[in-house]
Each structure stands twice: as C-alpha cells, then as structure tokens.
Amino acid sequence: MNLLVVGISHRSAAVETLERLAIGPEAAARLSRALLRGGEVREAVVLSTCNRVEVYATAATFHGGLAAVVDELHQAWGLTEHEAALDFASFGYVRHGADAVAHAFRVAAGLDSMVAGEPQILGQLRDAYEGAREADQVGRHLHELFQQALRVGKRVHAETDVDAAAPSVVTAALDLAEAELGRAGLAGLAAARAAVVGAGAMGSLATATLARAGVKTLAVANRDRDKAERLAAEWGAEAADYHDLAGLAADVDLLVCATASTEPVLRAVHLEGRTEPLVVCDLALPKDVADDVADLPGVSVIGIAQMQRAETVGAATETLAAVEALLAEEIEAYNESLRADAVTPTVAALRSAAADIVDAELSRVARRGDFTDDQRAEVARTVHRVVQRLLHEPTVRVRELAGQPGAPDYARALRDLFALDTPSVAEGADLAEALKVSPEPVADLAAAYERAAVESLKACPLGADSSPAAPTQP
Predict the structure, then answer these.
(1) Which of 337, 329, 245 is CA-nearest to residue 293?
(2) Predicted TM-score (pTM) of this structure
(3) Is 236 annotated as a binding residue?
(4) Is 50 assigned a catalytic role?
(5) Does the annotation flag 124 for ligand binding?
(6) Cβ 117 vs Cβ 162: under 8 Å
(7) Binding residue per annotation — 404?
(8) Confidence of residue 163 (pLDDT cuts 50, 70, 90)
C-alpha cells in the first residue's frame, strides 16, 4: 500500500494563493468522499487550516493515487485543466512513503508551522483524523499513522520546552501589534482598547490572550451573538454588535479579525471619519480585512504575510534541535516497523505454500492402507512441527533484517527464491511521470515542481505554519 501526502502550505505557496485555494470543512468532507468513490484511493484524511490544505491518502499504486488526489483537488479548487497543471507544479508538493511519514510527524510536532512549534496544529490534525474516522474513511494504514503522529506530537510538547519557546500564531501577531501600538504612542497592550471579531478557535484564543495581557477594555463580536456573549463572559469582556463594525472600530486601538467568512468583513467604509491610530490584526484566511483598509491613514494591518516575514517568530534554536532529534528517533522507529511489515504478506505466502505442500503429502499418505488412523495423525503432527520449526527462525529473522535502514528487498528475495505469487508493493515514485494528470508538457511541469520543492526546502529548513481552522480560522 502506498502512503501519500499531497497538498499546499505557506511553505510552497504565497498567502494570496493559499487564500484563493482555501477549503472549508464542507468542501474538505466532499473531497474525501469523492476520493474514495474514485476507487484509486483506499483511505483519505483532509487537513485544512489557515496555512495548508493537505490530503493524506493510501492507494494501491503511487501514480494512480497521486493522479486521483490531484484531480480531485483541482475540482475542489475550481481550476481549469490548464490552470491545474501549471499551478500545482508551482505551488504543490507530494510526499511518498517514508517522506510522508516524516511530514506527518513534523506537522504534528509543529515544526512545519508558520510559528515553529505552535501547539494548535495538533488539535487540528486530531480533528481531521477523527472526522475521517467517524465517516469510515480511515483504514489500518492511516489509523496507525495518525495515532503515532498524534502520540509523537504530544511527546514533543511533554518532553521539550517547545511550548514555552514557541508562541502561537495569535501570540506572534499580537507581539507585532504591540510593537505597532508602541509606535503609535501607546505603552503596550495593557494601555490599549481592544476588540475581537470572531468567536471560533482563533477568536477565542485572541480574546484569552488579550484578557491575560490586561488590555484597558475588551469587546467580542460574532455573527452568532450567543457565542460572543459566552466568550465575553468567560474573559470579563463585553459582547458587541457584529453588524456594527463601524461603531466597534471607532472605540478601539486594536482590532483582531478572525472569522470563518469567505469574504472580507472589515472594509475601509467601516473606518470612515476615524482620526486616531488603529492596529488591525487579520488572522483569517481568506482575509477578513479588505485591501483598501491598509491604505487608510493611521491604520496598520498585520496579516499572515507579515507574520511570515517576521524574523523573531519561532521557538529557540536549541529547543528546535531537541525536537528534531526526538522526531528523527520516532520517524526511524516507525519506518522500521513499516519496513518489517512490508515482508509480512510474503512471509504469509511462504507459510501458505509450505502448508499446501504438507497437505498434499499428507493426502498422499492418507491414501495408503498400511497406516492406522493414529499413525496418520502422528505423521501429520510430526510433519507440521518440522515445517513450523524450519520456517520459524528464517521468518522471524527476515522481519528483523527488513526493518533495518538500507536493508535489501527481502520480500522480493523470498518471492524469487520460493517462486511465490504475491502482489508486489508499488515501488519508487517517478514524480515526472506521476504528475501526468493532464495533457500539459510533462517535462516543464516536473521541472517547475522540482524547482519549487528545492526552493521551499532552502527557504524553510525547519518549518513554520499553522493557525486553526479551515478557510479562515478553525
């Protein structure tokens, strides 16, 4: 079975591209169902956050699985055939086999997040897995992968200082906002009047962070008024009218927008007549804040793009080194178990072939009339014991040896030596061939894909992503 991760993230695509291709919860569910209906993909989990859209899948063949996933992503994104070929080669990425395992573990640990080590992605990964499991879209392979990835993510946060060293996306944004407030003459967050638009995961976290910072005043607005009131009551804030953003913005120094809207909720018209400085944090994807807001005098907008450029975001270098070491250990252990499991079908076929030979010989003996029933039974037990003892040590050893890094293909060796007829697992992945999902020139497409992948790795060797939720916030 081939394990694949196919998708886009802040590492491979610009914020504008991520915004255009964001997938909400309903679209993600439709994508999973469509993948499984197609037949090529056997299991599927779609992870959609503010900074990534990824499909984790298993398929009988690499090429067939990849083509199916890419085609369905194109459908979900509404791209034309021509756009799909060129765009995915430029901003998409594919991880296969051991690389897919490493990617899943790094995502769970927060090392592939915009803020290296941030903890929110672990919850998002768990939600994506649980949703797919409840929809019966997860089998043994993805179940084991996600169980292990979630365990590793928890271990990273329990055994390293990554929680203390790595701020969340909200914290990073508010750090930048505090600097802007200082330039506007306010002595930090404690002196600011603040408001949060949105009461989902991001909005809730922003409200909690601002309340703990001791802001001068704090208001919460949400399309669902009851939800805003509950969140405001929890943190000693006031619930505000979501439909009067102009009035809300008129009385604050800091405005945080984190809704799940597919369109901007804050526009320049909401700030007409305002003369005092205003800092706006846009934590949503697609953006909650229209482009014309940043053009207004005295208004500073901090969005995902600004956080990507911030040099101070992320966990301390020594902490990241400790996390990397832990991940290397866990990834190798898991891949060792996968390599050992890869020979299991062949070992089973070998034992089955031996059993067939034994049964055939015992049937021949049974036809002889010079054996009593007890004698035939004793012969059968003896022959079975001999075969089991002969096969036990080699089959145990072959699993141990197959699990070692760089081990030869013991499964193939057994198939060749004993002439076993077992389906071989699809091998290596020729990405240039695998990306033949449209009639576009494959050579150009593959070259663009490889260039994008290399540049992405050069730019971000450690990682930095996520914020909660789908299209915009979680």
Answers:
(1) 245
(2) 0.64
(3) no
(4) yes
(5) yes
(6) yes
(7) no
(8) confident
